[in-house]
Input
Amino acid sequence: MNTQPWHLDESLAERYATGQTGQTLAASVEQHLIGCRACQGLLGRYVDARRHDQVFTGVIERIQAPRRGPVERLLRSMGVADSTARLVAVTPSLRSSWIGGVLLVLVLAQIVAHSEPVGVALYLALAPVLPAISVAAAFGGRADPTREMASASPYPMLQLLILRTVAVVGATVLPAMALALLLPGSTWLSLGWLLPSLALAAFIITLPDQLAVPAAGTLSAAWMGMVSTGWLRHSDPYAAVTPAIQFVSLVALTFALVVLLVRTTHPQRRIV
Amino acid sequence: MTTIDARDVVHTYGRVRALDGLNLVTDVGVTGLLGPNGAGKTTLLRALATVSSPNSGHVRILGHDPADIDGRLAIRRTLGYLPQDAGFPRGFSAFEAIDYLAILKEHIRASARHDEVRRVLALVGLQDVSTKKVRTLSGGMRRRLALAQTLLGHPDLLVLDEPTVGLDPEQRIRFREIISEAGVGRTVVLSTHQTEDVAALCSHVVVMDHGRSVFAGTVPELVAQARDRVWVDDQRDDRANAVYRLGDGSYHHIGDPPAGVQLVKPTIEDAYLLLAGPGSDASAVV
Output
């Protein structure tokens, strides 16, 4: 084995700098360059400074640029703009642990629903309130530590709010709907929670920040109480899914959407 | 050129008048707001940052009316705001945190945005920790990170709410350097409890108390308010506005001196305590 020290000569330095060495020789040169200041100096004479800066900037960019998580990658693959995907991906309650917890609860409710009828009531009690609680967790109280800074930015806060609500509701409602199709009994009844759920979530984002969490808690408790009462009185897990409830939910959803529409088109009266 | 012109500004929280007919006029340069807790500094800075709107009064910021939607947008496009409790999701890296706020500040194109993020991180000396998670950064580094986001896009107005709070002396000096450099050619309004920060940084100082401005002028003018009103004596005199014991056992007094006492040269802290400290007669100064 040859242990004699070797160094780059002018010819090798020029060939390496212009990319004319093979991969094996290039690897040897790079290994040597790490510890040899003399050869680093020699090579410097043959390196195009502009190309060097471009490569270096590219390396720094690869190291520093935010890594895309699964949500962001999914949104980008759907054609959502890079900046929009990033804003959605950092929504506090879109984090994998939160969504994982929500799905776990729903799956467990599904399992119980197939073993005893009370499980259907449990599922109907939980499915609509989880998106509402997720929305409240995303926007209520101090969930977003950047909120004060974001409020002073030119990006419209209402647009950010709606963007994130759609993402949060989509991430929780869509899997819940898929699971609802597996419930015993009528599919229509199994999806009877959907309208109340959307109404709850939409209503919550019309409220001021400080009211979002208490309102989500109160309304969720009211819904769960209604489902429980229906089950206890009539032994019918679907007792809360009445046409009257659907109508009230539709009115509440419409009202919330009108409020949001008015705020979007006439934002003068709202600062954030 | 007047960059901020606020007159007779009133802002209430229920029955509390956080701003009670406040007047503030600033120019390019660093303006420091001094005042005790509850003086209305944060409320004023939030209004200047367009995060909240006063109940009444006339406010013009960089020539725009913050009550008007277009005016507010124009202000936000050239504003850097550091709130008192600025925070970032702790799972973000330093780079990601600034990148996120850069998107909200309309830096849409990724490559240009990333260059801008690198620029502001370098300005606050955090370029070497850009890939570290926010949760692993020290308190001082997190504060510098929060300051970095204010510098995105070369804003004309910086609004900084207690930028040096919680920093050790070395970090405060570093912070002062950054703010001082940032203040060249633009308007900086900062609040602080540290009179040394004001003395070191500010070309203009406003002392606030009970939602009103009780002094506005330069630092030497503020110090002059306490001329011939500070004395040292071996005996404590409780008729003074403020008294504290010195290391050598004598007492430092601020207020109207009795005859024959040893007057000493006032500091900015003496003047501040005279105007807004405990026992001050702020209402008489207005």
